[in-house]
User: Fold these one by one.
Assistant:
Number 1:
Amino acid sequence: MVFLRPATGVRKPAGASPPARRPLSFNRFVWLWNRDQGMSTPLLHLQVCQWLDERWRDGDRRLLLLFRSAGKSTLAALYCAWLLYGDPDLRILVVAADHALATKMTRNVRGILERHRLTKGLLESRPECWAADRLTVRRSRIGRDPSLLARGIGGNLTGSRADVVICDDVEVPNTTDTPEKRALLRERLRELDFVLAPGGLMMYLGTPHSDHSIYAENPRRDLGESEPFLAGYTRLTVALLSQEGERRWPDRFAPDIVDSLIERAGPAKFRSQMQLLPTRLEDVRLDPDLLLVYDDPAELVSVQGREFLEIGGRRMISAQAAWDPSYGRPDRGDASVVAAVFVDAEGHYWLHAIEYLAVRAGEGADEATLLCRAVARFLARYHLPSIIVETNGIGAFLPALLRQELRRAGVGAAVVERATTTPKHRRILEAFDPLLAARRLHVHRSVLASPFLDEMRSWRPHGRGRDDGLDAVATCLLAEPVRLPQVSARPAGPSWHGRPIFAAESEFAL
């Protein structure tokens, strides 16, 4: 069963041109293409094609199609080819989040026009009639605009004119992760009204990436909207699951695949991306009750001359540490926090240690050096092979100092410098939400005695509460795990990620 949720009661825009006569339905056009390519046409695609067919015949020229991971862009390319097949004089503008994404549509449309049985010979053969971001078909009139032009949302559209504008995935994380970017996106999209010819078709295809999504059905009052951004658009929303939990396109999305999507993305992102419901970040919480608390120590276990690190009898296969540096103290200002996370073979994460560092200059060194020495002791204590140091702000010069202190202490850990550009609240949500929902985040009881638990309870996206510990742990969780070979023992001391141990009997005593 397929779950399509069209909006009702939407009026056609004033002045819409009468529908053009089509020699072949879009449904048939797609079916022929798939058959010649040796593919079947899913029922879902047939129903979406029928909806697009009906909208064109009925004169709807403001369309919004929302669905994810079901060939949306493929259908859009076929739709462009079908439109040009029916009327070669049309001018189509494809707008995407960036230029590279938009040009992918040009390549797809060109490939269809060259190979579809009904459109062979439609493309102009002159080299100047096509490029990576444009193409021109054989048409009855000469125009300065190509038949199809691709542009990123930030590109220059001055002077362009189009009979059809298709906005394909203009809302993505890179265009919506800050209020300024969301405002700029709306401003750029409003400019498309001056590009579109009177009575032309404007169609959006996409997925919500923000509570302030341009696709929202209700106005966002906090943005000053009195009506939704796409008010008056006829919409078709294809969610992955119905309210009863039934799947659309069951052949592609088996139950285990759906479960895996929820587990990897987390409930909040799954609702937004697959259920197409803009999620209010203000309603998102980090529930400490979903943490799995343990008391076991991290132990080095020797097996046949090799050492492994185990927690509660489970062998750890990777580890990551992160340091969010600050000169503040845990009781005031930003805290300087270092955290360590281990990962086992089953994909469970073990937050084994976290320290809110507090030092005072004058204890034999300056404050930065004392912080680096504390981090070096932390890495040695938990046998950690590397640490990520956030280099935003004061962290810019700390990696070199930390490497120096590690050498002095004889700790063989690598220092990875990383500057973060993703908003902190998004990093925290993406790191914790999937693991908490899947019950895969284990926390040592000692961590609960730190401010970390209070940070979880009080955390709100865009809130002003403390989140330094959450940020350090999120960096560990999001980092590509350091896969560690099953070897051990460096000369400086025992380790589960160094060289193999060789034991030999001696006949003399020291």
Number 2:
Amino acid sequence: MKQRILYIVLFVLLSGGINSLHAQQVTVKASIDTTHILVGDQLKLLFEIEKPKDLLIQFPQVPDSFSSHIEVVNRTKVDTLVLDDKTREKLTQSLFITSFDSGVHQIPPFYFRMKDGKMLDSVASRALAFQVHGMKIDTTKGPVDIKTVYGAPVTLKEVTPYILGIILIAAILFFIFYYIKWKKKNVPLFTKPEKPAEPAHIIALRELDRIKNQKLWQQEKLKQYYSEVADTIRNYIENRFDVPAMEQTSAETLGTFKQRKDLVGDASVDQLQHILSLADLVKFAKYTPLPDDNNLTLMNAYFFVNQTKKEELKAPEKPAVEEKENKESAEKITEQ
């Protein structure tokens, strides 16, 4: 008994030297971020030590399970921070611990070994405690998970492949639908764009020039001559005024222009009446017109087209241009 007391006295005397030097200079702090967790939750155990820079301290080697109820999930490296006075520093380390047993559990003190030259000592952290709460179990539903499943937010990276897939499928379906539609029409899938249609008066004047150059009435082909002149004027009326002259009788076509005074002037209506009436007499009544009538019919056709065509020139220049073209047409017919 006396020998044991002597050892205790010697230990106190030996450790007192270091404590006298560093007891007031070294501070050890252990803390946890919460004192209440659910079964399986984690809490952080933080060690903080402030000491002189020349004093060596060794952190304890904490095992993966330092009690029957507490397990270490993860641990960080020791982080060193130099304090403002440059002679002291702060060391920190975090342990993430958990427990799967409900109840109050104690975290024991941890001892940090110190060395100052040849002198050794240790300093301990304070003991801590936390409580683990169990989950309420509904015995009427059977076994359930400790934690309920929760939905994580969907990121753009995750949905991008689905979006691209939907776009690709839609494009394929559209192409198949488009192909079937054109297949039914029995036309090429890809066609060249059509050339813009020529103005109605250009087509009509070209046809009248062709008829004039054929000299049909000089060859006594009067029926063909008057039919081609009348058809040329009827086609011109359809393309220029959207009047179905090819399906109408001469009286119906003339009636349309007499009712709609805004389409052409009275002089043009008279010219059209001369062309259509004389053509009907030749085709249906076998009427033989005079040579002057033949010339006048072609001249009236030129006048009707030139006077009723869509002008692209400015309004003040229109009468002069029409008059010049009418004179040129008349001169050509007279020369024939």
Number 3:
Amino acid sequence: MATIAAAQPFAFEFDPAATALVVIDMQRDFLEPGGFGETLGNDVSLLAPTVPATARLLAAARAAGLMVVHTRESHRPDLSDCPPAKRQRGKCALRIGDAGPMGRILVRGEPGNDIVPALAPLAGEVVIDKPGKGAFYATDLMDRLTAAGITHLIFAGVTTEVCVQTTMREANDRGFDGLLVEECTGSYFPEFKQATLEMIRAQGAIVGWTAGLAAVVAALAGDDE
């Protein structure tokens, strides 16, 4: 067993053999200029620090032999899995499915839908294309985790208050213990990130735990803090 003693609200214990790293939606459409995030009026530079931090976490997880899962919010080219209410929501210059600088917005197979190169999945790592905010909705993620004997999840990704928090809540309802790595998640609204971290770990880890990157990397290396 490994322990992250500095986790909040109390120590997080996990068996690396039964733990997966889940990296949520680190896609060009959300992180790069010209993508969907920017068309919504957001400053994508606020998410930039999450990339090197997540690259460090990925390296540590891979070295420790964790199962690695990447997710992408994406839709079929015919948008048959995108409800009209989702496509029409928001005041943005481009909507899901529209042609943008990096191809059609949030459509599978388009350049903007790719995970940023610095965090590209390796051969054998799981990639989940999800049509909703949560990674368990309308995907085979639960089946994959169950088949691998996973009981604990370490989370990174964007945005903290939307797809990351939704997935953590879904995981909590399905019996997983989850921890969010603080430097490896980001929001276009820093105050939303802080509020989400506090909500996750409130009331004795009602949704899950949070911890700093250094403490997580140390635990993955076998150097419990």
Number 4:
Amino acid sequence: MIIASGTGFLGKILIEYFQSKVDTITVLTRGKSRIENNIQFIHWDAKTLGDWTKELDDADILINMSGRSVDCKYTKKNKDLILNSRVQSTAILGEAIGRCKNPPKIWINSSTATIYRHSIDKEMDETNGEIGTGFSVKVAILWEKIFFKQQTPKTRKIALRTSIVLGKNGGALQPILQLTKLGFGGKQGNGNQRISWIHQTDFARSLEFIINNTQIKGVINIVSPKPITNAMFMKTLRKVIKSPFGIPLSKPLLKLGAEIIRTEPELILKSRNVIPKKLENNGFKFMHPNLDCALQNLTN
């Protein structure tokens, strides 16, 4: 198994999950090459060919987690970094696969559930979901376009339209948890925006399921079965951690806060109303389909 850019939040979740299930994991990293137990870290720059390409020959699985964090202010410089880090890494992996005598059997590439439009009224699945507009959507469209454009006839391709992954050691849950502990755990904006989420274990399990079910291909939504409103998400979190009250954060206050910490209010205010139709139709069973139980597990 090869995990490209596997030292971030999601990469670490996959390493922890798969480490005991496969013989070796090769992590392509911008850091130094090294070996830790059955994990070998190989240096790459995510945009040019190099010695790392040898690792792809005879590999069974390639998972690409590359992409600069979107938790930043959308300046021109940051927009270029967000887009290029996704498109360049995907293109160079495609080129490397094309040079393999025995290429990976499956290539799983990150994408995002943000590709769908802001939706309160309609749940978005892989077939009938409506594509949105704006910078984040443009990135997602170009990312998937360059991915499916790669000529890899011997390699099955999957684009992961992942929403918020709830985890113990990073990701979106931790800052929200800290805000809630400080008393700011009320609804954000009007609270009607939908949140599509998935527990970190189900995130890893869903990838394992996709790998083992060879009929699955193309785009796939990686989210739990039922989106929840922001207001209900925050209410559930307050209940789980026994926070006695939660001050709501209005849209103007959120915009001001986002400006201060140099990020975008879209990350909180966009309604991601996404459902995992392909996963469920193929028989995937979630271990943590219920938000209350998922948060209990992650905050213990």
